[in-house]
Give the backbone structure.
Amino acid sequence: MSMNLTQNEKRDMKSAGGFTILESLIAIVILILSVTAAFTAVQSALSNAIFSKQQVAAFFLAQETIEYLRNVRDTNIINGTNWLNGFAALSTDPCYFTKTCTVDTTLASPAAFTTCSGSCPNVTQDLSGTYLYGQNSLWAATPYRRTVSIQSISANEIALTVSVSWSKGPLSKTLTLRESIFNWQ
């Protein structure tokens, strides 16, 4: 038996021998694109999860302020004092109708209310186990800034606006809740 191969047989052996450089490059490009797409999807999902967590925290900080002000109103009425006493009854009160204030819900009224001149300070958090949010300078700083403004609607109604703002990278976000509070007395 002779080992003489025809021209066609030699060509068939060459083409069946492996990938060409072009085929290898195309396979590498497809692999890189698929890995990049997966990393992009994971990065986007993580970014959205972080934003959602911050948005939930901001909502609860705003809602906490509304509940705190309702509690102060209820306590004032039960004690037989003006329902806005301590925060918006007098023009000298910290949250009077033309002022912007902040509320430290860890303190008792009226010490909880502070007028913000210019910009309100960021909320701080107690990381020692209670995880409360307030304005205590010994606690850890947070990215959240909580402001309150009150508008008089009538003698028995106020419109309460609580805004919580924070930054996420180069973007600034703000969540605003509005609530009417009534003198139920």
The chain has one domain: 31-182. The longest helix spans residues 21-78.
